[in-house]
Amino acid sequence: MPNLNGTTVHPDCRHFRGDVPCRPNKEHGYVCAGCPVYAPTQQRILIIKLGAIGDVIRTTPLLRRLRQEYPAAKITWLTLTPAILPQGAIDEILKLDMPSVLHLQAREFDLLFNLDKDKEACALHDTIRATHKFGYTLHPAGVAWPGNDLAQHKFLTGVFDQLSLANQKPYVQEIFELCGFEFRGEEYVFDTHEDKGYNWNSLPQSRPRIGLNTGCGDRWTTRLWSDEKWIALITQLQQAGYFPVLLGGTAEDERNQRLHAATGASYPGTFPLEQFINLMHQMDGIVTQVTMAMHISIALAKPTILMNNIFNPYEFDLYGRGQLVQPDRECVCFYRGTCKLSTSCMEDLPAEKVFQAVQTSVPLS
């Protein structure tokens, strides 16, 4: 074992940092010589999953299988959004920037999983040394390309609408198969941030609380539900004895203020990401469209009532909790940000249909 000036050092330990004291040293005063938690690394694994946030969240079930298959592995994850990842479940979380790229290109890995078709992710796949590589590579034409046969299915469903529409595999299953694993229903790995001491005294104490995530981002606005529909749903929830809580970010603040004024539904306001996650953790069920809050809800194991119109419904695995509801009129705008017709089919999703899904998924005691 390495010895520096008479001091034993274990650079192969999963805890060892190399630039600052490791956690066992900081918290317990352990040193490498005789360390009771020495964990020699047997495999070095790199996951490249940059974004978007929702896709990063729904890739975390892969961690469960990797820990099962490689319990002594050191797992490194490169992403654009480090804050969304569960800090205690990953040995090393890196944000995509030049320092991270430089030092990753100087290292060696046993397994490399590139799960993004972004050109920078594919270029990194090609320039980082690893014994076994999975996912996407960079084609000489300058576009993403399947790195092996396992990546072909997920690649093709992403580049041809016809194949995407015909696909009946959930996203998580596709990711597992791309990595060479059979999906066995592994749950997400996620942090509730319950240890941060957030205070939610403003929330109604009676249960069940139903979180209503009223926005959907600005890319796929064909998913939006009108104020009138939200008001109708809130009214039905209140009359039945549920406690609706309006959720959203700054983009939804004006709408949620209107809905609060019209119905009296609880609206705690907008919060930083970690606090928003913990707020969602206080809910007994979540009503949402396909957006970041949907991924958070599933990751928190909440009964999720998912309103979907423009995406393939097979893509989403609710893990047996909640229901997926769709408009009564068939959507003709697959993966489109604007509706081809004058009125979005979301207006043909009745509030009563969503309310019934809440009743089934979160029964009143």
What does this structure look like?
The protein is α/β, with parallel strands linked by helices. The chain contains 13 helices and 13 strands. The chain has a 6-stranded mixed beta sheet with strand order 5-4-3-6-7-8. Strands 10-9-11-12-13 form a 5-stranded parallel beta sheet, with helices on both faces. Strand 11, helix 12 and strand 12 form a beta-alpha-beta unit. Helix 9 crosses helix 10. It is globular, with a radius of gyration of 23 Å. The model has no long low-confidence stretch (mean pLDDT 92).
How are the SSEs ordered, and which strands pair?
Blueprint lengths: L2 E2 L2 E2 L14 H6 L14 E6 L4 H5 L3 H9 L3 E7 L12 E4 L2 H7 L3 E7 L4 H9 L1 E10 L5 E3 L5 H8 L1 H6 L4 H8 L30 E5 L13 H14 L2 E5 L5 H11 L9 H9 L3 E5 L2 H8 L4 E4 L14 E4 L25 H11 L4
Parallel strand pairs: 3-4, 3-6, 4-5, 6-7, 9-10, 9-11, 11-12, 12-13
Antiparallel strand pairs: 1-2, 7-8
Helix pairs in contact: 9-10, 9-13
Order of helices and strands: EEHEHHEEHEHEEHHHEHEHHEHEEH
DSSP E strands, number: 13
Question: In order across it, which strands form the biggest sheet?
Answer: 5-4-3-6-7-8
Proportion in β-strands? 15-25%
In short:
This protein is of the alpha/beta class. Helix content is 30%, strand content 18%.
Keywords:
about 375 residues; alpha/beta; five-stranded parallel sheet; globular
